[in-house]
Design a protein that fits this description.
Length: 199
């Protein structure tokens, strides 16, 4: 069985797979600088949008790196290219185009002119929680494509999943046991200072 088929057999949910830890070995090769890397699938506008969004989802703090610092955009780009079927790639591209239209309604403008505040406004206005009404989906419940909200929520999910499974986060931020051989029973706060275990 081909690697792509094996990964897809894990299961797709609205265009993205439930990713196994072994697949994240691809993430470890995604270490080039966020500004200079060349996408394998995404256009330059899509790269700009993705890079800005992942750092809003997971910004740098005093103790943790930003999503771009651990190669999350590169991983998502490779994931779209190597794992998604052509029809799912097209759905993703259409969803990116919706976001581009929202961020720069004037086609003559450049995404480099879009501020981080504009991205935050985009998320505030178009990324709904599960109990909120997605008017785009409500207007067209049978549509096979993703609404802006569904797409942004999937990007957020992918960002978090890739971030938590990066080598830097897994080994230096989460609780890490390279050879798990013991079963511990107790309070998470006492055992790991409240940190989740790395996969």
């Amino acid at each position: 069985m081909k690697r792509r088929d094996a990964i897809k057999n894990i299961g797709l949910a609205a265009g993205f797979a439930a990713i196994s830890p072994s697949f994240f070995s691809m993430l470890q090769s995604c270490t080039s600088d966020a500004e200079t890397w060349t996408p394998n699938y995404l256009t330059s506008d899509e790269k700009t949008i993705l890079t800005n969004l992942v750092d809003i989802f997971i910004p740098q703090t005093a103790t943790t790196p930003a999503a771009t610092q651990v190669g999350v955009p590169q991983f998502i780009d490779n994931y779209i290219l190597e794992v998604l079927e052509v029809k799912d790639q097209e759905i993703t591209r259409t969803a990116f185009n919706k976001i581009i239209t929202i961020l720069k309604p004037n086609t003559d403008s450049s995404l480099s002119d879009v501020s981080i505040e504009n991205y935050k406004t985009l998320l505030d206005e178009h990324m709904f929680l599960s109990n909120e009404v997605d008017t785009e989906r409500e207007a067209n419940p049978e549509a096979k494509g993703l609404t802006s909200s569904e797409f942004l929520n999937q990007l957020k999910w992918m960002t978090i999943k890739a971030y938590k499974n990066s080598e830097e986060v897994g080994e230096n931020i989460l609780a890490y046991d390279p050879i798990p051989t013991a079963y511990y029973c107790g309070d998470l706060q006492e055992l790991t200072d409240g940190k989740s275990y790395s996969l």
